[in-house]
Amino acid sequence: MTKSISTAQLKNFKNLLEKRNDHRVLERTVTQNGILASSRDYRAEVNTTPVFSIDLDTGKVANQKQSGRCWMFAALNTLRHDLRNRLNLPDDFELSQNFTFFWDKLEKANYFYENILKTAGFPTSDRKVAWLLSMPQQDGGQWDMIMGLIEKYGVVPKSAMPETHNSSASREFNSLLNLKLRKDAVLLRELVQNKATEAQIETEKEKMLAEVYRMAAYSFGEPPATFDFEYRDKDNNYHLDRNLTPKEFFDKYLGWETKDYISVINGPTDDKPFNHMYTVDMLGNVVGGREVRHLNVDMDTFKKLAIKQLELGESVWFGCDVGKSSDRKQGIMDTELYHRDQLFDVDLAMSKAERLDYGESLMTHAMVLTGVDLVDGQPKKWKVENSWGDKVGTKGFFVMTDDWMDEYCYQIVINKNFLPDELKEVLKEEPKVLAPWDPMGSLA
Predict the structure, then answer these.
(1) How many CB atoms are located within 10 Å of the residue 98 CB?
(2) Within a 10 A sphere around the Cβ of 275, how many other Cβ atoms?
């Protein structure tokens, strides 16, 4: 039986409010200053001073500008950190995010087409079909997705394929591409339903992909097939390596064993027991390429692995819910930064698992751990390299308290050689397939 709010209830609510001695003061405070400013605790700034016992020198921060490429920036940042140190490169050296962005758009279009064909026998009201059509593609991604692109296409320095208007401000391109993909989905589904041959479907799909390639080339520029790697190092020595392909550049100058770096998550929900492998249905970009795979572990293990990698001089790609209890301008992520519960005298406490299960939190942003402050062997705060330029935080670097990591960090990327033997064995198991809308499938 449904019940509406009664007049008597409204009168009672008003009386309860007026009985509070502080309600006029708080009303004036919140209406004039807003909720966050009124609930902010200045002590958070004291607890997040940007000083760390382990602090990697990683150069200047990058800037993704008005695009959702944080996962891509964070991954390329981890690659350039090593390259910068080995080649004595300038602090502002970057790998081209536009290069990988171009190929990601083309591959995501193909991935979408393939999923549309697989589900063409279901109505558009089917949950999976509706999920596909709700966002055919977007800027976001996962670690395994950027590694899939690099394994197929390689990388180039930013000088070989610099930013364009559309890579730095991607909304217009995304809107246009999603329109095209939905339009193409109509035709592909009709072809399947009208019993078109596989060859006919493939011919139409190839035409569609050629159009996507053209759209991406006009918007981002066409990726170089070869380029010259030319630079001066920090000591002003001149270097030139001519006529490299992107894959040759990766193999020669980076040389990472990409398959050694694996996604480790902390998803403490009942449907994901720890120490098991997981993947997500319909999540990816390169068809036939690298599968998204997650090793789920408890938070203590999660942090120990991150610390071990930092101690050995390697930065750590990580994914989190950056908007929760954080200050973008000052670069603070602290669970004690705002006390909205105390301001309004309401209980807002939820466990990490409850926030995931009930849609209150999920991974929204990827960054890089470049330091940690250890006190008696225990982490107290973490240094974070963001990709929002140097006008925020401390020249673009943020400070994250350890409690904030516990509550809002969901993913790190670790060299599998740092795993204990029992977890190395877990990597061999067949992953459980999660639904496309599972929070562990969210794109940073």
Answers:
(1) 23
(2) 14
DSSP state of 359: T
Q: Whole-angstrom Cα distance, residue 273 to residue 296? A: 7
Catalytic hit among 115, 174, 365, 409: 365
* DSSP string over 84-101: HHHHT--TT--B-HHHHH
Distance CA 271, CA 260 (A): 27
pLDDT in tens, 194-213: 999 999 999 999 999 999 99
CB 444 within 8 A of CB 140: yes
Give the residue carrying structure tokens 């319909």: 282
Assess whether 386 carries a catalytic annotation: yes
Can you give the pTM of this predicted structure? 0.96
70 labelled catalytic: yes
Indicate the helix (H) or strand (E) that contains 415.
strand 409-415
What SS3 state is found at 435? Answer: coil
Euclidean distance between CA atoms 431 and 408, whole angstroms: 24
For 404, residues 6+ apart whose C-beta sits below 8 A from its C-beta are 325, 326, 333, 334, 335
d(CA 385, CA 389): 10
Q: Tell me the chain's radius of gyration from C-alpha atoms.
A: 24
276 in Cβ contact with 297 (< 8 Å) = no
Q: Find the catalytic residue in 98, 174, 296, 386.
A: 386
Which residue in the list 63, 70, 110, 294 is annotated as catalytic? 70
The parts of the chain modelled with pLDDT lower than 70 are: none
